[in-house]
Structure formats: C-alpha cells, structure tokens
Fold each of these.
Amino acid sequence: MAGACVLGIFAHVDSTVRAIRDLRVRGFTDFSVYLPVPVEEIEAALEEGRPVSPVRLFTLIGGLTGTVTGFALTIWTSLKWGLVTGGKPIVSIPPFVIIAFEMTILLGGLSSLLAILVLGKLPSFRRSPTYDPRFTVDRFGIAVTCPSDRVDAVRTCLQHAGAEEVRR
Amino acid sequence: MSQEAVRQPTYADVNRDVIRTLGAPSPTYFAWMSIVGLILTAGILAWTWQIYIGMGAAGKRTPQNWAMYITSFVFWIGIGHAGTLISAILYLFRARWRTSIYRGAEAMTVFAVMTAGLFPLIHAGRMWFAYWLLPYPNQRYLWPNFRSPLVWDVFAISTYLTISVVFFSVGLLPDLAAIRDASTGWKRKIYGVLALGWEGTDRQWRHYRRAYGLLAALATPLVLSVHSVVSWDFAMALVPGWHSTLFAPFFVDGGIFSGFAMVLVLIIPMRRLFNLYPYITDRHLDAMAKLTLLTSLILTYFYACEAFTAWYSGDHFERASLFWKATKNYAWAFWLQYFCNSLAPLVLFSRRARTHTPTLYVVSILVLIGMWFERFNIIVAGLGHDFYPYTWGIYYPTVTDTLIVIGSFAWFFILFLGFIKVMPSVSIVEVKETLPHPMKETHH
C-alpha cells in the first residue's frame, strides 16, 4: 500500500511549531520540515526525544586519525633516514607535535565536511517532490508521509495549526 | 545613538537584496576590473622575467635572500587571520554583528592565503619543484626534515587553506540553494550543482549546524597556530631581533590587526557599490574599528616589550640590531611602522572617527602600510645587521620584485572582485537568523 505525502506551507514560526506538536500528538511521526533558516523554536520542537547528531563522531574519528597520521609520518620518515640535524634526537617529539596538530585539524575538518554530505544525503540532484522554492526564502514547510486513508486527518491538522497552503 | 532609522528588512528582502548584487555589473565595476587586470598582467610578466633571468632579477643577494617576497608572504597570511576570527571565533562567541560581514571576511581569508601561497613559490625560483616540500615516497628515501620550521609552515599553510575553503564553502551551501531557486536558465543549473541539492530539511540543518560549530571550533586553534608557526620561521633562528618567545602572539595579533584593516578596506566600498546600508550599518563599522583599535594597542604593547627586552637583555647584538633599525638605513621604515600601527589607530578612540567612513578608510590603509613595513623591518632590517660585519648587507628593490609584489595585490583584488559578482557577498541565511522570526501571534 503506497503512502501519501501531504505538504503544508507556513509563513510563521509559531504555527509551524504548533503543527509539529499536533502531528506528533495525532501519531504522525514520519515528516520532514523545510526551513529557510535554522530556527531555535522549531529545532527544539523537533529535537524532543531525538539523539544528538552523530556529526561529532565523524569529527572525533577524523581528528584522531590525523593525530596518529601526523606522529606516524614524522617518526617513521625520520627513522627511515637517520640524519641528525641541529644536534637534536632523530625522533624529536616537540616539533612533531606541530605536524600532528595540523593533521588533526585537517582530517577533523575534512571528516566534518564528509559528515554533512553523508548524513545530509548530499549531493542529490533530484529535487524531492514536496520541495518548494519558497523554502529558501521565507516559508516553512512540513511534508508528512502517511497512509492514504489518513490524508484528510493530516490536512485538517495542518490547516488547524495555521498552514497557508496544504497540498498533496 | 544608533542610526537605525532604516526599516528592519524581512526574510524576503534579504534574499532580494543579496541576490540583486549578482546582477549585471556596472561600468565602474568593469573599470576596476580592467585596472586590476592590467596590474596583475604586469606582475605576471615580471614573474616570467624572473624565471627567465634568475633570482638575481629580484635583487636577492646574501644576506638579503628573503626580502620582499617573504615580507609579502607573512603580510598576506596575516591578512587572512581576521577573516577566520570573524567567521569562527566570533561565531563561537555568538557575536551577532558578525553575520553581515563574515562572508566577505571569509572570502578575504581564502584569497589572502591563496596570495600568500604564491610567494614561497615565487621565492623558491624553480617553483616547478615545489612538490619537493611535501612528504612523498621517492627513490632515494628522502623525506622532509620535520625539525625545520619551513616544513611546519608547509603543513600549517596548506591545512589553513584547506580548512578555510571548507568552512567558506559549507557556509555558502544554503545561500547557493537560495540563489538557485531565484534564478533561471544556465545560472540555475550552475548554482544548482554548486548547492549540491540543498533543500533545507530539518535533517540537513541538524547535521549542518553541528558540523558548522565543530568546524568553527577546529578553525579557532588553527588560526592561532598558523601565524605562530609562521613566526617560528623567524623565532627558531638565532638572528638578533628574531630569537624571541614573544614572536608567536606578536605575529597573531599583528595578523588580526592588519586583517581587520583589510576587511574595512573591502567592505566600505562594497557596501556603497551594492547599497548594503541596511545590512552593514555604522554599528558594524564601529565594532570593527573597536577591534582594530584593541589589536593596535596590544601590538603597541608588544613593540614596547620587543624594545625593552632588546635593551634589558644586555645582549650586545640585540641592542646593536635595534639601534641600527631605528637610526640607520631603514630607520624611515621603522618609524613609519610605529606611526601607522601605534599612533594612527589612536584616532579610533573617538566615536565619530569610528563611524566616519573616510577617516576609517584612511586609518585602515595606513594600518596595511604599517603592517607590511613591520614585516619588512623584521625580515630585511633584521637580516641586514646580525652578528658579523662580514654578513651585513643592504637590500635594494628591483623593478621585477616590486612589480611582483604589487601584482600580488592585484591578484587578491581581482579574486575578490570576481567573487562579489558570482557569490553572495553577504550571508543570506545568517542575516535572516538575526532578524526577528515571523510570528503570527506577536507575543515578544
């Protein structure tokens, strides 16, 4: 049985928040919200009961990989060609910390970028059917996926909350 | 107190006003592009000449082998610092005034680092061997000397460039989607590809915002490390006037100081050209001017420390070096530096000067001149008079290296001019975030 998708378009933050709460109360949890800007009120309403975004795990793993790479590269290559310079030990940790630090930042940053792409499912060059260009200007949208027989319930819910426009 | 009689823009106004800046350029814009393009051409020709003739064309002779190229390298790296400070550090401090200027400042960072990156190549002479700086496996098992500050530099600068580009592009993403939605035809296609299919769903925002915060948190220690590493190119050497633990904070502060001046030099005309007065208000200029003043005062403190330690150390060579800098061949550059960096910015104690754009502009340009000469004094005057009369030497600029240095400014400005016509120079999303959110029931 194919589900249906209902889109509600809102002009105001408070009505969007109300719609999110009402939908949850009525048992609709499969929806995505379009935002022109991140708004704290809406985020707070959405984040209820959600785990924290796993982006930080990407950054942590990337950063640690960088630290290890930085030390491994410097120590390994110095041992490969044991040339004493400036009377310093072959494995001189203090200067190697600089390389390890830079590698930590580099790989930590790149893996955060990777996280945005992987977790946000980007790049994707096909607009989703519920997308509306007004969502990058000043309109908020809620796209609810529901069984076909409950479309009317969703419609009523969105309209009650104050949607400017509701469509399938 | 504030002159915000201008009507508060709405979300749609922000989109319209920012996207309007990407319209067909005016004749003034083309005139500027042509002038800058000509200067850049002169610079490129001079570089070609230098490659053909050899480094002698750049007036390099022992002990003055660093001269204007490394001076300009340090200067440009420093310029970049203000951009990261505004985009990352002020982001973490939630300074809301940063939103309308951070995009321009961040672009400035990327372009300044791109300009700086040219100088080690120009300076190396045979820049087609530049890859020798990188650790890569080769037949002879030769690896870079990781105890050398110059190798730290390679890592610091390339990381800084990469992370700045990442941070800049991530910030652009939702704005590019907004431009995509507002344009048609081939423009829509290009911006559509660049926006990577951003739709602004809660899922995308949620990860995006987390990652943005983490990138800011990574960029903050990075920016402090980069100029510290650059300063260690000098501080690790025994040359009088260089061998000091003061150098890292001294360079970082100087970098931020000159960068703020460059931001002002760029955004004041930009605001006029695009009529961005509702977004870049006098309050923004005031805040920028205050930060310039603060960093100037810190720099003056460092100058005082530098002179004091040279005297108090009792070290003959330190004292001789300082005395030589202040009174002999390069004395004019030495005093120009103090005038531009320590005296001229004091004008900004006056509130009127901070919002009077011509004054602010003149001070900013003086600061840029002063900061370039500060690096000149460290490098050229520092190397010119060290321990041993046999190694003393004066540097005279040649037409070739002067043109290359001037050309680097043209390269920077041509990148910036190009940028403001193809990318949103004010962040659409972040400016909207600072506006009151549209509410049905006005209970605020």
Amino acid sequence: MSKVRLLVGTRKGAFVLTSDGKREKWKVDGPHFAGWEIYHVKGSPIDPDRLYASQTSAWFGQIIQRSDDSGKTWFQPGLAPGEPATTPDGMPKGESNKFVYDASPETGKPLTTHMWYDGTQHPWEFKRVWHLEPSLTDANHVYAGVEDAALFESKDGGQTWQELAGLRGHGSGPRWQPGAGGMCLHSILLDPKDPKRMFIAISAAGAFRTDDGGKTWKPINQGLHSQYIPDPKAEVGHCVHHIAMHPKRPKTLFMQKHWDVMRSDDAGDSWREVSGNLPSDFGFPIDIHAHEPDTIYVVPIKSDSEHFPPDGKLRVFRSRRGGNEWEELTKGLPQRDCYVNVLRDAMTVDSLDSCGVYFGTTGGQVYASSDAGDSWNAIVRDLPAVLSVEAQTLP
Amino acid sequence: MIRVVLPHHLRTLARVGDEVHVDLNDSATVKSVLEALETRYPMLRGTIRDHDTLKRRPLVRFFACGEDISHESPDSLLPDAIAKGAEPFFIMGAIAGG
C-alpha cells in the first residue's frame, strides 16, 4: 500500500510525519535539529530517500543537512555520519554551509546594493536558505533560494554551492526590496517539459523566468498591480508570496501575492487577477490538486497588518475553475477564536488517487485532508510554529 | 592546548561535549583559535564568523578570563591563562528571546 511522508520545518526543529495510504493514523518523528529554525525540508523526486534540509539560526548562520535514508540519519554533505571531519593533513572536507555571492567579473556582474526599507541602497548580505528545490533528474543537483534574494545550486549533493548570478545580474536589483520577512527568494519551480526553463519568486521583487538554464532571467510581472509601491504596475518591486505550477501544465502559473490571487496561462508573460469571491485575497500559500490542474487552494488571511484568518475562522478556499469562483472548506477546521497564520511554504499536496492536502500553522498544528479538502483532521496540534510542509508520496 | 567552550547549538552541531580542545602552532589569538577550531570541526565554519569576511557574526560574543573581548582585534594575543589552558575561551550566543 502507498505511504505518505510529510517533511515539516518549524521554528525549533524538523519533524517527519508518516502514514499509510489511508492517512488516518500518523507517526510523528522528531524533533530533528532541536532548537534550530528549519525553514524547509524537501526530498528528491527521483530518490525519495534523499532529503535536503535548511537549518538556520540568526546566531549561528546557515547549515545544509542531508539524509540518504529518508530522515533516519542526517549529515552535512561532505561529512558522512562518523566520518572524520578533516582530511589526513587536517584540511576541512566540506563547505556545505558556504553561500558566497558571485562577484566574479566573468559571471557575477557585481551587483552590490538593493533597496532598503527606507528607500536607500543597501549591500547584499547572505542570511539564510528559505527554499530547497531538488532537481527533477539528478538527486545530487539541488537549487537553493536564499535571503538576501539570490539563487544558488549544488551539483554535488549539497557539498558546495554556486550562485546562478544571472538573476542578480538582471540589472533591476537596486529596485528589489525586503518585505517584513526579509528579501527572500522563496519559490522555485522547475518546468518538467523544458529543462532549461525555471521560475522563481522574490519578496519583494516579483517573479522571474529563465529559458536558458539560469544564465539569464526576465521579470514576469506584467498584470500585477501593487498599491503599496510607488508605481503599482512596475516591472519589479511586487511582493509575491508564492507561486505554483501543475507539472502537466507548466505554462499555467498561480500566484498568491501580498494582496491578490493571480493566474498566468503564458508562462508568466501576463497575469490576471482571479481573487473572485474570496473573503480576503491576502495570504501566503497557494497550491494545486495533484490530478486536477484547475483545482487550487489558498488560505485567506485578514490583511497585511493582521496576519490571521478573517473572523477567527480557519478556512481553506478551493477553486475548481482555476480561480474566480471559490468555495470555503471548513469541516474539521476551527471556526472560532483561531488567530494563526499559514506561511508560504506550509501547504502541500500528495499524489494519491484521492488527493491529500496538508498545511501547517504558526500555532503548531498540521492539518491533513485525504479527500481533496472536503474534510480535515489535525495530525499534530502542538508543534513549534510551522514554517514549511512538503509531502512525499511513496510506493 | 586551548580549551574552548561552545554555545549549546554549536555543541550539538559539532557533536561535542561542554568543552573542546585545540592545539595551536602559532601564538594564541582569537583568529588562531577560530582557525584551529574550524579546521578540527569544519561544520562550524560560517557559524561563528562569516565565511567570506571572517568577521564575527553579530550575535556571537567572545569572552576570556571574564572579559568581553568581542570587539578587540582578532589578532590580539589572548591572556596567558587561555594560552596555557588554565582558563577556557568562551564563545557565546547573545542572550535573546526565541
């Protein structure tokens, strides 16, 4: 029987939740890396035992962790469990937590500043990895979206990281600016039909696309309208919270923006609003049903200054028409006195026949639906604040 | 032999106990101690000082013989008591909530 594994990143460690295909009873394993912020954990689509985790701390910086046995044991790439940490002559082996912006004249096009909160220019400073996106074809190839916003990749299983500097070299960097959570590259979508095409999103710069494997990038923000920036229709500067793509229809993208839910059917060249009858079109995550490319999910949040559900009711909204017409899903979710948030990487789906949908909250609950959102149950209620949830569907 | 006391999170990361020991070929300075520490425990590279600039991370502080030496030059000599192993060199995370 199939199984589902959920990889949950929280403010104080990582948790691995597993269940059989019925998704009724769950085993909770963790915390891994107790006390550290785990922004994201994600498995390789071609080797589900290979997991990558972003372990981070405002005090002690960025660590990349890897597991080759589905989360039972972890190590920093380049340092296998029990292996000596240095070569016989005492040199360090691994540099897996080293993220250095590319400033080389050949590729870096040194770009030294972005816009700060007060409108002045500010130097790029590496802070943490927000999102890890393993390659669709090679378990040792993985992308990392980082704060301050840039895209890195590793082709040796996370041992070393190189910046794809063409993104920052686009030239619009001085107009990128941090949102409340920092200036982060949080979404990475790999086109399964075109290995050279990738989409990323940055808060607050917008969405970008490459069609040449990451060498050059173009902003894809036409149609976005953001009242909170001086030019609401600017080429860059939009606070995109998350973007999603169904692998069978990679030219259609969905976006949860700071405000507005958006849709593109031309690979991001143009966008239109599909917020429709949502009670609020502010929110963070957006995701797509595994088998129905026009069935999408969002969690409306009251406003940019009140990061909790409207009316104290935790509701997922589902559209079966790719937006505009939304139905509220409440069965099993708290409908009074609920003031949690659901962060941008904290929603995911599995690919079982009856699509499972999952999301985690800042209150430490992880909710699961095994019927595409019709009803929900809390797998756990008292984890640390949940930063990310990823599902793996296993044979 | 230099005795170094790490903060809790770095002990778990390096999988070590309360105190670690490093040997120096050079004179004992913050810089030489950190270099020896990072050579022996490469997983600590980037956690105490920046990978690129080698500057102390903002929320990390260094103490020697009860004195906060975080803002002294990393090339300054450490006290004899540290250099001879009588007292440990403390690396601490700034106290803050969360």
